[in-house]
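Please predict the structure of the following assembly.
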Amino acid sequence: MAETITLGKALNHGLRRSLEDDPKVVIMGEDVGKLGGVFRITDGLQKDFGEDRVIDTPLAESGIVGTAVGLAIRGYRPVCEIQFDGFVFPAFNQIVAQVAKMYYRSLGNVRLPIVIRIPFGGGIGAVEHHSESPEALFAHTPGLKVVSCSNPADAYTMIRQAIISDDPIVFFEPKRRYWEKGEVELEAPLAEAFPLHSARVARPGTDATILAYGPMVRTSLDAATAAAEDGRNLEVIDLRSLSPLDMPTVYESVKRTGRAVVVHEAPGNLGMGAEIAARITEECFYSLEAPVLRVTGYDVPYPAARVEEDYLPDLDRVLDAVDRSFGW
Amino acid sequence: MANGEREVGGDAPAGGFVQLLTPDGERVDSVTTADGTTYTVDFTDDEYRELYRDLVTVRRLDAEATALQRQGELGIWASLLGQEAAQVGSGRALRPQDMAFPTYREHGVLYCRGIDPIMPFGLFRGVDQGGWDPNEFKFNTYTIVIGAQTLHATGYAMGITMDGKTGNADGEAVIAYFGDGATSQGDVNEAFVWSGVFNAPIVFFCQNNQYAISEPLERQTRIPLYRRALGYGFPGVRIDGNDVLASFAVTRAALDQARNGQGPTLIEAYTYRMGAHTSSDDPTRYRIASEVESWKAKDPIARVKAFLTKQQLADDTFFDEVDEAAKTLALDLRERVLAMPDPQPVTLFDNVYPHGSPEIAAQKAEFERYHASFEGSH
């Protein structure tokens, strides 16, 4: 039976199901217990599963991830919450030097089935360090897998898929979409769910391909709706997995449409869009009617809240890029 | 202030340390620290002799590794010379169910866990990254980033508690090794915080060998390291790190406290790195010969030999036999190190992800295609 719930609630349901399904799953982070997390994603879980399974940790991100490594060696499946994107950097060493490399270092003897949840992106009027998009730093790191959900149904499924995966996964949650509602099939069998590391066509189209993930999927879908009024039929692909990228789905689309625009909030320089554009160019060169264009944040630190709307890609900037693609 | 009731043997740092065997080989019956804990050992004659054998063996294997590095057979070696007592004492104090988290220098602990000493040589020869199964050996992979493993050890210890494996004499405990330099790392301080508030069954075993590569202890701390434990809410004990008996006694007691559910302990093993930081280091640039000489007089093996001799527990026949046996092990190790094959280049794509990755698979295929294109050419 489908329920209409918010993306945040869908994550909460997904975490609850994971805690029910496997006694080795533990949630750890700052304020995840009584408070239920600053975004309430873990609301009510400590009450129902106890302080040993939903662990309020000391306030130190390296400690959260570092102790998760030890718990994983012990056989646990830790789900770490990093409170905000800009607070992940104290844990960066543990994530990049330990979590990402342990399986390789140990010749496959040590699996670290750790999920690191990070609310990311801007648009919520926050102070510094609360609106960043550091996903490329993790996608650039071999040994990590990186995913991002964009809607409640995916949030519910993807968090559970990430938790049962033995790969270490950095799970980016589009914090400004936490309150968006959608239908979620809570009882659908997980084994038959859409694969975690596959991209999905969020809106079929014929004229150009918009590639987005996380919070920018909604923006891109809105842009496609607006473009339809101008007679342009845009295909929107929700990439979902940033490492690995599901490029076959992308290539199939771009070869059909001949045009591609990549959209993300993170700065453009060496961002996901750069990699995606390079790969499309290598694989779809003779199908392209125009260069792959990027609509991204600017290469500046995330700005103050009163000007963040000027920094963030929005519907108009996406449409402007589509126009430029067609003007080539 | 006082750690021991007295400064033992005149060679203790200010504040004292637990010493059960003096550099001259005199046995101290017991030491009672300021908190009222009494430390002693009750070894049989055989056990004393076997400790001596351990010390000699790990030093001999270490010397062989240093020679292999000098001959170009290892890329680098991190010698434990001078730290044998700290490692053998604490290593022998571990019970089979205990888990150790080493740095990259704990070859002596590895040996005392009953592990084939060749295990870390893949790492130092450069044929792998030190790839063994920590749970099989109860000995984690070597960790190179300083202090990172103390958090892993803490998490593992939390898991022991969550598994209900503490609270009695058969409980499990963890030992985390690190050095004086690591105590400045955030990760080590976070591990102390975590272990304290979660009452984790863990022993933090700091080998204070006086140097972090070139930087002396004074650059890491204003107070003796063992005293930091107080600030995190658990006991800290300093031991004579060159005394294998003190190392055993205090580690055994701290591990038993941990397994009984009484939480963490910090042990500072006050010792000295007789060799270089690694084979790439030149200690003559930052320390003086007389300092090294003064520590030679506190040698961890010579004092056990003196004790065994004075107590008439061993004679030259025994000492010669131990040397010969250690040499045989070392030569066997050398032979096997030299026989270690280089990995096939294509294996560099292996073990990136448990579930694999289409991107890595594609790169591997391209790598194979590229190399196959040279087949038949020169």
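The mean pLDDT of chain A is 98. The radius of gyration of chain A is 19 Å.
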